[in-house]
Amino acid sequence: MNFEWDELDLTAGGVRDAHGTITCNDIPAGEPGCALRLKEEASPFMQCLWNRALADVMSNHVTVDGKSYLGAGAKFGVKVFTRDIAYSGVLGVNRTHPELMRTSLRFTRDLRLHLGLKVPSEYNASAKGIPCEVLAINDETFMNTYRTNSFLRRTDDVIWLWAYHDLIGTEAKNEELRWLLDTGERCFSELYDPFFDVTDGLYFGQASFVDIHVPSKGIKNSGYPHEWDFADCLRLKTTCTNALYQRGLQVMADVATRLHESSAVAWVERAAEHREAMRRQLMDSEGRFHFYKLPDGSKEPRRSALASALVILCGVVNEDEAAAVLSGYPHTCFGIPLLDPPRKGSEFCYYHNRAAWPFVDALFCWAEQMATGKDTTPYAAALAARTCRPDGTFHEVVRLPDGDVRCSASQLWSAAGFINTCFRANLVEEGREGSTL
Known about the structure:
- It is a single chain.
- By secondary structure, the protein is an alpha+beta fold.
- It has 13 helices and 17 strands.
- The strands form 7 sheets. Strands 1-2-3-4 form a 4-stranded antiparallel sheet, covered by helices on one side.
- The two termini are 30 Å apart.
């Protein structure tokens, strides 16, 4: 696989960009935990990157108190991140490490349903109409006790439905389908329905994975205006999170239908009504999607790479409409900007603003190929490969516009993005099982 564009150059022997060259000598070996291999036609460098991606997945396998699940990356330790696990599964870890994905996703359901809408004292948002059950403990104690944040920092939790549905596939046994339906019904009833606004048919909450402000530490994150408080970040109707809800509703409809449940009709109707609400209120006259809708009904003029990808991947738009969704979205040699245009001002640091995220690059390239028919895998592979610095593992985020690779090493969903690219490029050998666990 070769790619050449401006200062980005992927060859059989390595990747070169404005920051230097990475070759096989820079990629350390590791334990893949998976029998799947690339075809012989794949270049030596792609082979090295594939083995590294599998090893990065395995490096995030943690066991705590007898519970086994996938962590998010080297710097995150044993913290539980449903979104990281679920996005990684959809991107391909469901196929490479299926049993580890299964135990991870089920573990997140046990933990999340146990916690419900409980929040530490700093996250009392009830005055602004945000559902929550306030505990008399602080944020640090909450995290130390449960190893995850409260639901108010995880309002994109519904993504697990997409991931589990993808994991079990079309030949799933009834026991798996029954667990999925029953658990999904509990999640909607106890966690998701309280965030549904009957007045416009959309769900409110954060933009998927874009961290809200942190009241316990006085931190203002870069994905939202700094004059907002943390609750303001939750009162939004965001395109990306609603796309995940749309996929979740589709999953519920499919599983209920496969089990011949009478509830199937209601789930089908809910999915159809929600899809139309998204199209009516979040799509503009050119077929593009706003980042979010504000409580006063106004729309954020910026677009989101993740939201743009998800409305295609989650079926919010049809095949004929998909190209318009992505029209004019910028591409760079360092990645695809998460927000376009970025927020201005020195206070808006790079993390969720002037940045490209490798897992989002992978999802965007996947959606772009679906929309245009153009083979996007060489570009996606080159972008992923350049993040393997300085230690030869897949990293968390890329700062724009200078392309500096930043933050956590062995990042789960970054590695998953490369895995996705290899599957899409038809480079993975067929006929072998995934996980060797």
